[in-house]
Design a protein that fits this description.
Blueprint lengths: L4 E2 L43 H11 L3 H14 L47 H22 L8 H14 L3 E2 L12 E4 L2 E3 L13 E10 L2 E10 L5 H19 L8 H13 L3 E2 L3 E5 L6 E5 L15 E4 L2 E3 L5 E3 L6 E3 L5 E3 L2 E5 L4 E3 L4
Antiparallel strand pairs: 1-8, 2-5, 3-5, 4-13, 5-6, 7-11, 8-9, 10-15, 11-14, 12-13, 15-16
Amino acid sequence: MGFAASMTSPPPPLQLSSSSSSSSSWSNSALFSATPVSFSPPTGKNAQYRKRLVVLSKRVSPLEEGMRIRRERELQKTVKFRKRPPLKRGRVSPRLPVPNDIPKPPYLGSNELPDISSEHQIHDSEGIVKMRAACELAARVLDNAGKLVRPSVTTNEIDKAVHQMIIDAGAYPSPLGYGGFPKSVCTSVNECMCHGIPDSRQLQDGDIINIDVTVYLNGYHGDTSKTFLCGNVNDALMRLVKVTEECLERGIALCKDGASFKKIGKRISEHAEKYGYGVVERFVGHGVGTVFHSEPLILHNRNDRPGVMVEGETFTIEPILTIGSTECITWPDNWTTLTADGSPAAQFEHTILITRTGAEILTKC
């Protein structure tokens, strides 16, 4: 999102996937378990088999990509990764006030999580202008929040700064009060997939942190997030962060009027699997505009979900990649969601506008 929408009920049948009670994962490499095979050049008696071996080579060539993925995974396992101490909940301070003259979104006043609207949000020219303004503000706030990331800073301090920047611009921080969420931004550190609640924990040298900003300006939501590096981050984490951003870019690159939504998940999965990363299926992108969360739901994994993009439509793409398991656990606060095995996760998010020939990234700073 601000909040990545959660698949609380199973989506339509997904291509080549398996499911569990919390999430599911699948990768091409699971299909390939053979070890590399080599042939010596045919000589003497073996020369008669030259043509046969060539034919055999052609028959197995579709496996080459899968075996390459397997080798990439094995190579990655050789990278030394120092597991950090498990994330622990800090003290959560009281929610910050918002001036009375700032317009509020309609979901305030209830701690119930709003339903995801079934309506796709397609805008006229006036709506597009307002979406651009909201998204530009969100991007600017996120960029400034990222400059605060350094060892010893608390996520609560980041929340306070984000809150002030948003209300100073005459906007409302969309997460605040959404389904009872107590803060103005999501801060997800290390193994936290998403929806981390800012608290008193200080960032540590070598951490990674996703900051997820959504603003409500003139009746429209702008939604974006980015994973930042804190201090001296090791190579394994830097690569995870880099590839996650690349996955988002590749997903956006194929978006345009008439394109199938399912292509996004296919493209993201293909790129993630090259590096041996898992793509989290439980949390998805979503339509955004006058309503915080609506259809279409954007799956980041391979899927057969129907539907095509329409010119003037706005939605988010926000893949979460993990080094290990894509299964997740949620803390008793009902928001903070971590990888089940404690492995690191990274996420990037943009709000985009579908055009006739492509997609405009509205939250690009």
